[in-house]
């Protein structure tokens, strides 16, 4: 049985005509309909499985009583409403249940029952509070209520989920998990293995990377979309992920349909492409999505931000004509190049992965597309090696590997040619000559997983983010309490000059070296110490990160320097 409980100012209804042939005639009074004020309206749909009348009625009354008590309702309107379910019970069963429910509820409430089996017109005004609309599903299985009241001890549960503390002893000093703790960037919890709890400081870094991604992709004429997190499993069967990938997909259920938590963004993107007819004039069509994806991994292989279950993938798809492919690949390489340069990450090598044993598509198509990718790399004079047989089942790909400051290499970006998805989703556009054609498609990511990229960046820089990305950009320390007022004035002035400047103060009653040390652990790029001398000279004593010497500079000069660093993302 499905019910929808509405706490209303009023409901007005009137039967119009019979919806079922076998239904009884109404009395004159019933035909007039009704008007009830301050009622808890219970829309009901009795379903096929509701054969245990006694139990179902009991559960229904229990639910109604529960809500009525919470919203303080004294009047109940039982209102048969077939639209709540597609699995309706026979009229006999429904009538019996509703009659029994009416009888039971009358013991505690003033009850009005709208006629069953009639088309009715109705008008109601629902109150605005959070409990005014509640939907419930009431089921009875094997004579037992499906949802049993569970007994648990929440303090014990809290203890259970709080066990998981980071064990620093096994990590190297430069590990991003340690840096993350020192800088208060993120944490993990037992309740969500492999999923990041971003703290304010960490989210600043993540959002900064996203802003840069958006800027670069807007310049390169990409659109941005966002698609649902949970989608019907049929979609993943169409895309082919179900066959190849089902062990890594989180599943859930809704109204007896199986749903998957998206492990990839591509299928959602295909549906956006298909939502309107496309013309050759719109191609190449570049669509990006910063989609949050979930992939099942064994908890034993999870490792900080490097290996997670939930992550943000900076995905992009390019739909184009075959002759446009090369230009598009160059475009992607340009975006990737700009991005790596921003972080002083160097290209280490590029791998071109070719047709695997298990594949779809004709040989001719593989010949052509492998050559196409290789020619693009040659034309751009990029060093690459061939990874024979390592391509995706739907097409060849190029992977970009970069080297970090510790000499390690990471695969970040990829470009993949895909024959399969346009075919499976029957993507089409209208060509110049008015014929329908199938576009070709590229998948690409720049960061890959933003979570992982933050981890790499933290180790690559030892937490010393460039000023534009640093969670705290400036920290002001007072020498003694005497200087606090002036220091506050400086904070205000810098804030006025540089909007969105992330500036903080440390006016604790402790020594300057101790305050400097704390700011250093937070990797603040600029520490400013305000003492009597600075106050008198109207200058700033600035300690630049990584440099033990203190520079004395004018306020204006300092403002210009930081402004430039932030705006140019230096
Ligand atoms: Zn994709």
Description:
The protein has three domains: 2-145, D-tyrosyl-trna(Tyr) Deacylase, Chain: A, CATH 3.50.80.10; 168-227 and 265-459, Bira Bifunctional Protein, Domain 2 (BirA Bifunctional Protein, domain 2), CATH 3.30.930.10; 467-567, Anticodon-binding domain (Rossmann fold). It contains 17 helices and 29 strands. A hairpin with a 5-residue loop joins β20 and β21 (409-418). The chain is an alpha+beta fold and 570 residues long. It has an eight-stranded mixed sheet with strand order 12-16-17-24-21-20-18-19. Strands 1, 2, 3, 4, 5, 6 and 7 form a seven-stranded mixed sheet that branches. Strands 26-25-27-28-29 form a five-stranded mixed sheet, with helices on both faces. The longest helix has 20 residues, at 200-219. The protein starts with a strand and ends with a helix. Bound molecules: zinc ion.
């Amino acid at each position: 049985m499905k019910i929808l409980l509405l706490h209303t100012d009023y409901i007005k209804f009137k039967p119009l005509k019979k919806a079922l042939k076998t239904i009884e005639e109404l009395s004159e009074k019933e035909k007039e309909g009704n008007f009830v004020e301050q009622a808890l309206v219970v829309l009901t749909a009795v379903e096929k499985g509701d054969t245990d009348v006694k139990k179902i009625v009991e559960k229904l009354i229990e639910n109604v009583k529960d809500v009525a008590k919470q919203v303080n309702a004294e009047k109940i309107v039982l209102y048969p409403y077939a639209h709540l379910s597609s699995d309706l019970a026979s009229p006999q069963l429904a009538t019996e249940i509703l009659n029994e429910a009416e009888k039971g509820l009358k013991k505690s409430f003033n009850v009005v029952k709208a006629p069953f089996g009639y088309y009715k017109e109705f008008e109601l005004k629902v109150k605005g509070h959070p409990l005014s609309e509640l939907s419930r599903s009431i089921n009875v299985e094997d004579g037992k209520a499906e949802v049993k009241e569970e007994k648990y001890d929440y303090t014990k549960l809290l203890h259970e989920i709080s066990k998981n503390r980071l064990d620093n002893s096994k990590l190297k000093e430069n590990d991003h998990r340690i840096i993350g703790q020192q800088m208060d960037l993120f944490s993990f919890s037992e309740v969500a293995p492999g999923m990041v709890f971003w703290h304010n400081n960490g989210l600043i870094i993540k959002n900064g990377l996203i802003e840069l991604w958006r800027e670069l992709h807007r310049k390169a004429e990409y659109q941005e979309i966002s698609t649902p997190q949970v989608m019907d499993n049929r979609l993943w069967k169409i895309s082919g992920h179900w066959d190849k990938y089902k062990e890594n997909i989180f599943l859930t259920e809704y109204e007896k349909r199986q749903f998957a938590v998206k492990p990839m963004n591509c299928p959602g993107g295909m549906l956006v492409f298909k939502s309107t007819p496309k013309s050759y004039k719109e191609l190449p069509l570049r669509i990006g999505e910063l989609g949050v994806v979930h992939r099942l991994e064994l908890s034993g292989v999870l490792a900080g931000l490097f290996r997670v279950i939930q992550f943000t993938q900076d995905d992009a798809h390019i739909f184009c004509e075959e002759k446009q492919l090369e230009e598009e690949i160059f475009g992607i390489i340009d975006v990737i190049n700009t991005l790596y340069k921003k972080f002083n990450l160097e290209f280490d090598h590029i791998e071109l992965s070719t047709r695997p044993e298990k594949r779809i598509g004709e040989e001719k198509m593989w010949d052509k597309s492998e050559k196409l990718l290789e020619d693009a790399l040659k034309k751009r004079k990029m060093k690459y090696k061939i990874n024979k047989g390592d391509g995706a089942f739907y097409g060849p790909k190029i992977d970009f590997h970069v080297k970090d400051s510790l000499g390690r290499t990471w695969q970040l970006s990829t470009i993949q040619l895909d024959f399969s998805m346009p075919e499976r989703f029957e993507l089409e556009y209208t060509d110049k000559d008015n014929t329908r054609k199938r576009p070709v498609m590229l998948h690409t990511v720049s960061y890959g997983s933003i979570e992982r990229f933050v981890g790499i960046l933290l180790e690559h820089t030892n937490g010393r983010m460039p000023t534009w990305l640093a969670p705290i950009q400036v920290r002001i320390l007072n020498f003694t309490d005497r200087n606090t007022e002036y220091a506050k004035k400086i904070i205000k002035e810098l804030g006025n000059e540089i909007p969105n400047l992330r500036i903080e103060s440390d006016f604790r009653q402790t020594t300057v070296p101790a305050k400097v040390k704390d700011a250093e652990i937070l990797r603040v790029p600029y520490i400013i110490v305000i003492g009597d001398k600075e106050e008198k000279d109207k200058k700033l004593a600035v300690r630049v990160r990584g440099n033990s010497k203190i520079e004395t500079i004018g306020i204006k000069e300092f403002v210009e320097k930081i402004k430039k660093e932030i705006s140019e993302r230096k």
